[in-house]
Specification:
About 25% of the residues lie in helices and about 30% in strands. By secondary structure, the chain is of the alpha+beta class.
Length: about 280
């Protein structure tokens, strides 16, 4: 499947003002600087941020997912790193995916134990507290520190497409929350956070399996899981969902075997010249 026009544009490396990009709808390129890679310590990242000029329709958003886009708040992004192509968009074909015995057990336990409430994303004090607890207790806190109400709104409530929220409740207590985008033919897992005190429920895995079940219920073909990064321990869990497809270059490639899926190492971008940057 060929990539869409946004991937083929040559973004300006230095910008004084936002740059308008053609498309349907057009988008504003609002950021295109290099930074430390959040996944691989020895790499420099470039994640151009694009702001659609209007809210995306389900079909338009589905095309962007198929081309490798991710969403954060109102913005879309896709890695265009100067010397590395380790980031690969990953998705599950709902009709092809076969859960492992462990995954079947996790899903059955979650269905028996949890109530899932589906609605529009919103900010509440208990969600902000749960988000921060998840970050702190799982060692995921970055230099930005804890999130506040405004940051939560910008990251997990504001959106440029159709977005839902899955609230996982146990005996009236919020124990997990997942933000999920909906396209014409797919769901896209944006972010999931949960109470580390309920590790026995494997809430991260359950959330993915629950989203797969919703895809089947709603007649959607794909569940997008974001980016898979070979060499990143934080992303390794995604390779355990088999078979899956990853966007390698311009082509979605199927992976049926866990060992084949996980041994691929970061690849240098053959089209990029060497670019010196700040030491990481």
């Amino acid at each position: 499947m060929p990539l869409l026009q946004p991937q083929r544009l040559r973004y300006p490396e230095h910008m004084d003002t936002p740059v308008r990009l053609p498309g349907a709808p057009p988008e504003w390129l609002v950021w295109n600087e290099t930074s430390r890679c959040p996944y691989l310590a020895d790499q420099t990242a470039r994640l151009p941020l694009r702001l659609p000029t209007r809210r995306l329709k389900p079909g338009e958003f589905g095309e962007r997912l198929a081309a490798g886009d991710r969403r954060q708040g109102l913005l879309l992004y896709r890695p265009t790193c100067p010397s590395c192509s380790a980031c690969e968009a990953i998705r599950l074909d709902v009709n092809a995916f076969t859960p492992s015995r462990t995954q079947r057990r996790i899903f059955a336990r979650g269905e028996e134990t949890l109530q899932t409430l589906i609605g529009r994303p919103s900010m509440t004090a208990d969600k902000v507290a749960l988000y921060n607890r998840h970050k702190l207790e799982r060692g995921l806190l970055t230099g930005d520190g804890l999130i506040d109400a405004e940051g939560y709104e910008q990251f997990l409530v504001e959106t440029c497409t159709d977005t839902i929220e899955l609230r996982y409740v146990l005996s009236g207590l919020l124990v997990g929350n997942a933000i999920v985008d909906r396209a014409a033919d797919a769901l896209s897992a944006v972010y999931c956070f949960y109470d580390p005190g309920f590790a026995r429920l494997s809430l991260g895995t359950y959330s993915i399996l629950k989203q797969l079940a919703l895809c089947r219920q709603w007649g959607l073909r794909y569940l997008y899981l974001g980016l898979y990064v070979a060499g990143s321990r934080a992303m390794a869990y995604k390779a355990r969902f088999l078979p899956h497809e990853r966007l390698v270059g311009d082509t979605w490639r199927r992976f049926d075997d866990a060992q084949e899926s996980s041994v691929r190492s970061p690849q240098r971008n053959p089209d990029a010249a060497d670019e010196s940057g700040d030491p990481l």
